[in-house]
Specification:
Layout: H1 8-19, H2 24-31, H3 35-45, E1 46-47, E2 50-51, H4 53-67, H5 76-87, H6 93-103, H7 110-122, H8 163-166, E3 172-179, E4 186-192, E5 198-204, H9 208-219, E6 228-231, H10 240-247, E7 250-253, H11 263-273, H12 287-298, H13 310-320, H14 325-332
Parallel strand pairs: 3-6, 6-7
Antiparallel strand pairs: 1-2, 3-4, 4-5
Length: 336
Amino acid sequence: MSYKHLTPKERFLIHHYLQEDCLRRKIAKTLRRNPSTISREIRRNTGKRGYRYKQADESAKRRRGEASAVPRKMTPERWAMVEDRLVNKHWSPDQISGRFHRDGVVSVSAKWIYNYIWEDRKAGGVLHKSLRRRGKKPNRRGRDGSGRGVIPGRVDISKRPVEVEDKTRVGDWEADTITGTRHLGAIVSLVDRHSKFAFLSKAGQKTAENVGSAMVRCLEPVKELVHTITADNGKEFAGHSTVSEELDAGFYFATPYHSWERGLNEHTNGLVREFFPKSKDLRKVDPREVKRVEELLNTRPRRVLDYRTPAEVFCEALEAVGVKSSVVSELCSWRE
């Protein structure tokens, strides 16, 4: 039989039988316990006022907690091994734990290593900076708001109209954000799946409010050709319901980690990176420079369009649906 700790009820009975001057062996027989268990319990938990079951139970819980607070075999030398693999080899706590167990070094869980790192951080240490998330604790699974994919009112791409996949109509847009060095500043990019026409707009910091406003600012003049918008699962798109209402369009989110579902947007972002690399602080970029890059992309002949430009295809679609002549003239001024 496996060992079981004494329960509060058993400690109460021990206290009761001791008050009745029962022998320890008789107490053990009554409780169906080994006599040594009863003797050890009384010896450990008898105070100046004798054996009291409440204090005995509290003392036992405290000792049990202290005993399990640190893995017994984790010596300072082995913690040094943990730190070496964490800082110098960039291993994760899970990798350290798994490899130590595989090599027979010591059995220590990833959770213990994380706890060690948090304690080091509280003491002013820097071990947490070697974690891939730089010390940001992972969200607990199953909680509302955990992970990138949990956005209020999120509508999955599987519910998007099937005709969007065909890329045969103008008005189905893909949306994303482009950030600079240290995520300072952001540019919102919007690309039409059929015409390849792109809108680029500075959004300041990458917040849901800023990104939503930039999207409406770009697409509102041509809302007649805005049927759907598909974005990734970044929290900057948390204001999607407002954008959807302003533009009277469906807003859908791609499957997490399925970037190919927005392949055109990813490709366009790569083109934009030629002008605004990741090392660039986008806060310092002039909005006129962003518009110049937008014009360059929209006036390039594209093989997929039979070497027509995105501006030509998109402006023809605008004229076909009767968009204001001033809007068409401004966009079509890019056509050669």
